[in-house]
Amino acid sequence: MAIQISENGRLFTLHTKNSSYQMFADPFGTLLHLYYGKRTDGENLSDLIFRTDMGFSGNPPEAGSDRTYSLDYLPQELPSSGVGDYRDDCVRIRHADGSCAARFLFDSFQVSKGSYSLPGMPSLYDTDAETGETLTITLREACSDVRVQLLYGVFEQADIITRALKVWNGGQTPVDLEKVLSMSMDIPFGDFDMIYFAGRHAMERTAERLPVRRAGVRIGSVRGTSSHQYNPAMILCSPNADEDAGDCYGFCFVYSGNFTASAQQDQRNQTRIQMGIHPDFFSFRLAPGEVFCAPQVILSYSSRGLTALSRSYHRILREHMCRGPWKHARRPVLINNWEATYFDFNREKLLAIASQAAELGIEMLVLDDGWFGKRDDDNSGLGDWFVNTEKLGGTLTDLSEQIHRMGMKFGLWFEPEMVSEDSDLYRAHPDWALTIPGREPNRGRNQLVLNMARPDVRDYLLERLTDILSNAKIDYVKWDMNRSICDIFSSCSGTERTGELYHRYVLGVYELLEGFLARFPHILLEGCSGGGGRFDAAMLYYSPQIWCSDNTDAVNRLSIQYGTSFFYPVSAVGAHVSACPNHQTGRSVPFRTRGDVAMAGSFGYELDLNQITDEEKEQVREQINSFRYLYSLTHEGDYYRLTEPGKDDFMAWEFVDENREHAMLTIVQTESFGNPVPIHTVVKGLDPAKKYRCLMNGAVRSGASWMGAGLTPDRILKQYESLVIEFVRES
Ligand code: DGJ
After folding, report:
1. 492 Cβ contact list (under 8 Å, min separation 6)
2. Can you give the pLDDT at residue 119?
3. What is the C-alpha to C-alpha distance for residues 13 and 44, in angstroms, rounded to an integer?
């Protein structure tokens, strides 16, 4: 039983293979959090709750004269708000009389087979391999007709618990929601570090680790997207946790807009963890009878360190979030013309790249920005999704057919959510752009953002996408989004609803993506937002791969891909070999290394193949063969981080297949010194009792020996050189 309920219906235990999560509705109706950690037998752990009379921690009226009962320190699942819990609240409601108090009391529960879904938003879905179970706990607000449903999904075998919530206005007057997070949880004991993934455009998801103390650690985005600056995922772990040992909790937000995520110790050293839509620039008016759904958070616990935690996320996102025919199908090796030509291309240039690509075995040409409207730089044309036949020297139909005749697939770039002021679309519909009347809008990349909350905007975009995609042979779409959002003003539903707009924008994007996939289910979609500015679990529901970063420098990519790997599977990571000196950093790295780094992702090229040497062309052929041969190992196998950026003078990672028959370890030398000492790395994930042959030197040793004594490369690597070492099981 994944969901265990006590006889009196007040003690709830969720079990996964290796973890248990327990809650208890106390006699006053407060839903207390008792435990999340190693699997238990589900015994009642409410004796862990320690009550005391603490000064300046008041008592709710139902406690009467009992001064030991305080919402200010009880560990809760849905903290009440404005009634004596002075820590961060989770759901803040402004009632019609202007008051903001909310005391949430246990009302009822329901258990159902199958996982829950949230209208208009992605969430984990059931598969033949595993069907989830759902516990719904309803709480009522003590003095109004507002109800909150806490949703708990359990994927027992996958070691995953999900949380989401719904707020329902059952009263006669509207209420304003001023804050609705998706989850709050108080861990009563223990000190934790928080690991989060921060950065900037072209340098996303750098892992950082901070101790959580009373000042708290908080990340988030108010940019309208999940952002380059902070990824919507975090890990809480014991201070000594590393890849192989220690308690780790993961929290991954299934949402692509503004978010907040935090962990903070309270006065009694309990840790409150929260995740949800950012309360800044947010309010939502809930009319009588209306329901607001907060997006899903995916939780996982590992007592065996970070690698095991990552594995749970890789599997659940790959199997229960990514959808469609491309979920497991091998992705085509592509060549994208962006870094080869930028906007400066014509038919001849494209065909020259394509024919060289076809000759080398590349499987798809992707035509990036600049094929539509008037778009020879990034100052004009967005919104005018009409083929520029003059620039293309003919129709897209012709071009796509010609590419197909070369034996390749054809992909196309779009940036549907944006509009240039210098475009026919903007001239016809200036009111479709997000601007505030009376204020000159802020521009990002000299472009404005379309109001995706408007149905007429979505209709226009779907009609344009449909027209282009049904009139040419298109197998792949890169869906880009190249600025952060501001100037929020609701021109369609009145100023009082402006606080809803950021969220309605995200729902609008999801609706358009859903409509697009319904019409073109065969198309492989690659998400993008200036690289990885919208690299989140929710986007994986639509696009099984996302362009990881605009930074294609193989050395910078080591830390970007390292940070990305904590939550997201390799199959989701778009990674390309580009030209050197690298366009973002000016660094030169051997062609082989560029390939070995991009091989830890959905692989492709982004350079002019006519500009590379014959030797490099030969390497392209070899890389494509390797990618095909290693595909199931890299895209479905288990991933191990063997080093941390900046700690050693090399980076190493490893893949091991499910049956532990085949492993591949990649090393990249990041620093080099005179008279170098040999490097040494451990090997992970092998079967200790079996024998493995190392294809680097032919040595045969037991898995235990490779994992215990490790491996030393048989040659010194120069700076930026790489080495790929395979292990094959012999017994
Ligand atoms: C940003 C993307 O990340 C790039 O790969 C490229 O598609 C440009 N946009 C095109 O404008």
Report:
1. 451, 453, 454
2. 98
3. 9
pLDDT of residue 436: 94
Total residues found in the chain within this entry:
731
- Measured in degrees and rounded to the nearest 5, phi and psi for residue 230 equal -145, 125
Atom number in ligand 1 closest to CA 531: 3
| Helices and strands in the chain: count of H runs, count of E runs | 12, 35
4 HSE (CA, 13 A, CB side)? 16
**Nearest residue to 174 (alpha-carbon basis) of 91, 282, 96, 81:** 96
Q: Of all atoms in ligand 1, which is nearest to the CA of residue 413?
A: 7
3-state secondary structure of 634: helix
User: How much distance in Å is there from the Cα of 531 to the middle of ligand 1?
Assistant: 7
Ligand 1 in contact with 152 (CB < 6 A)? Answer: no
Ligand 1 atom 9, closest CA: 530
**Angle at which helices 614-636 and 347-360 cross, to 10°:** 70
How confident is the model over 296-344, as pLDDT tens digits?
Answer: 999 999 999 999 999 999 999 999 999 999 999 999 999 999 999 999 9
pTM: 0.98
Residue nearest atom 11 of ligand 1, based on CA coordinates: 369
Q: pLDDT value at position 1?
A: 83
- Please list the active-site residues: 536, 616
162-178 tens-digit pLDDT: 999 999 999 999 999 99
Residue 494: the pLDDT is 58
Beta strands in 157-245 (DSSP E): 160-169, 175-187, 193-200, 203-211, 217-221, 230-237
| Residues whose CB is less than 8 angstroms from the CB of residue 629 and which lie 6 or more positions away in sequence, other chains included | none
